[in-house]
Amino acid sequence: MNSRDTQSDGILSENAHFTIPRSLCKSSRREFVAATLATGFALSVLPVSAETITTDSNGLVAGEVKIPVQGGEIPGYRAMPATGGPFPTILVAHEIFGVHEHIKDICRRLAKLGYFAVAPYLYARAGDVAGKTDMQEILPILRKVPESQVSSDLDATVAWAKNTGKADTSRLGITGFAGADVRSGYMPHTIQT
Fold it and tell me: What is the pTM of this model?
């Protein structure tokens, strides 16, 4: 405590309790900020070791589905609340590794929020990328899939969802990962048709 903490009558000022004696805090604010930033950086570059979040399917109807498309069918994953409906519909566009457990978990999370969520496997007819990690194996499969086929398969997915009677496709959205070209190109497509 110093003289600025006391008023002329010897009573502590209202901010006196915020003063930390220098002996307890031997570093300046600048040193504190620098140490905090360095610690944050060090923690951010460490490998992530947390467990994967997995959303349960309690209260949901969730699982693999077959979606009719031009020339056959493609696999997908659907999750929705077990009761009620029709629900607003969300298309979940997967990234280059296909419809894997994280994409399925996103569908379950959306279903827990009251959505009919479906992730069609958009590369299924070109090849299976499940379990592949080598980009030299994955990219040739992706390059086989024309944008028109992706749009057509998304249209077919919306039609399939509507036909279940549980999806309100008039309230349609799309989300996804590393597929911004699909998401940004598809919504204007659906609005025009």
Answer: 0.69
CA distances to 3, 5, 11, 17, 100 from 8, in Å: 9, 10, 7, 17, 71
CA–CA separation, 151 vs 157, rounded Å? 10
Please say if the pLDDT value at position 161 is more than 90. Answer: yes
- Is residue 91 located within the same domain as residue 22? no
Q: Is 7 in the same domain as 80?
A: no
pLDDT confidence of residue 180: 41
Q: 108 and 183 share a domain?
A: yes
Confirm whether 55 is domain-assigned: no
pLDDT tens per residue across span 82-95: 999 999 999 998 88
Residues 167-183: tens digit of each pLDDT = 999 999 988 776 545 55
Do 97 and 123 form a contact (C-beta atoms < 8 A)?
no
Q: Could you write out the DSSP letters of every residue in 15-40?
A: TGGGPPPTTT--S-HHHHHHHHHHHH
Going through the chain in order, the beta strands assigned E by DSSP cover 60-69, 72-81, 87-93, 116-120, 167-176
Non-local (6+) Cβ contacts of 144 within 8 A are 123, 126, 127
Q: Encoding tokens for residue 129?
A: 């990328």
